[in-house]
């Protein structure tokens, strides 16, 4: 079987790469499907054949960045394995994503777009949120295994991820601070794990 990408796949990839360049250079509001088509060297009709609008195209880009930054195996709950080690793996995977310069650039674009036009970008931001369900799924599995308190998993997952974003996302997005050093990344991950387990881990597990 040939491994050469089909023409339609090559065009789709060209559209995505052109969109990434346009969004990063010009922002969400200024970027148009015409500009994306011109940069990708395809017709505007071809762009619309692949993506109904730039909101869907932007969501596709963010999803790709998220997928390439995560190690899906690290997101799976493993019964019988220490919670601390699993949680550190999970948060280290998230930390790698939060320190990806491409992701940060496009997250800035998405957030700026949401401020100026929340109605148009609501679905796009909802899709961004869906990519964080891996933490929620892990917590649900650990609760079902009788190892974490039976609280709202979405609430606990939001708390946990906020411990990372306070240091490794919002300062970079809003204040232009540089990504965290490797040492600081590990410190943030370890402290988040300690705080989360101190409250949510059942006494029998400690």
TrEMBL record:
Q: Which residues bind DNA?
A: 32-51
Q: Which Pfam families match?
A: TetR_C_7, TetR_N
- Boundaries of each HTH tetR-type domain copy? 9-69
Q: Which domain of life is it from?
A: Bacteria
Alphabetical keyword list: DNA-binding, Repressor, Transcription, Transcription regulation
**PROSITE patterns given in the database record:** HTH_TETR_1, HTH_TETR_2
**UniProt cross-references to InterPro entries, sorted A to Z:** DNA-bd_HTH_TetR-type_CS, Homeodomain-like_sf, HTH-type_TetR-like_transc_reg, HTH_TetR, Tet_transcr_reg_TetR-rel_C_sf, TetR_C_Proteobacteria
Spell out the SUPFAM superfamilies in the cross-references.
Homeodomain-like, Tetracyclin repressor-like, C-terminal domain
PANTHER family assigned: HTH-TYPE TRANSCRIPTIONAL REGULATOR RUTR, TRANSCRIPTIONAL REGULATOR TETR FAMILY
This one is known as: Transcriptional regulator AefR
* Gene name of this polypeptide: aefR
């Amino acid at each position: 079987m040939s491994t050469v990408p089909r023409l339609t796949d090559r065009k789709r990839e060209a559209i995505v790469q052109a969109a990434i360049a346009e969004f990063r250079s010009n922002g969400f509001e200024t970027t148009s499907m015409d500009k994306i088509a011109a940069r990708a060297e395809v017709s505007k009709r071809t762009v619309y054949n692949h993506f109904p609008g730039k909101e869907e195209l932007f969501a596709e880009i963010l999803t790709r960045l998220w997928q390439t930054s995560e190690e899906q195996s690290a997101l799976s709950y493993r019964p019988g394995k220490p919670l601390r080690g699993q949680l550190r793996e999970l948060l280290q995977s998230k930390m790698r994503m939060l320190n990806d310069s491409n992701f940060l650039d496009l997250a800035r674009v998405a957030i700026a777009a949401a401020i100026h036009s929340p109605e148009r970008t609501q679905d796009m931001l909802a899709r961004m949120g869906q990519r964080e369900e891996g933490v929620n799924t892990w917590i649900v599995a650990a609760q079902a295994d009788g190892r974490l308190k039976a609280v709202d998993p979405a609430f606990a997952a939001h708390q946990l991820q906020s411990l990372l974003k306070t240091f490794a996302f919002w300062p970079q997005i809003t204040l232009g601070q540089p990504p965290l050093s490797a040492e600081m990344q590990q410190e943030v991950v370890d402290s988040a794990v300690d705080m989360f387990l101190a409250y949510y881990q059942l006494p029998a597990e400690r």
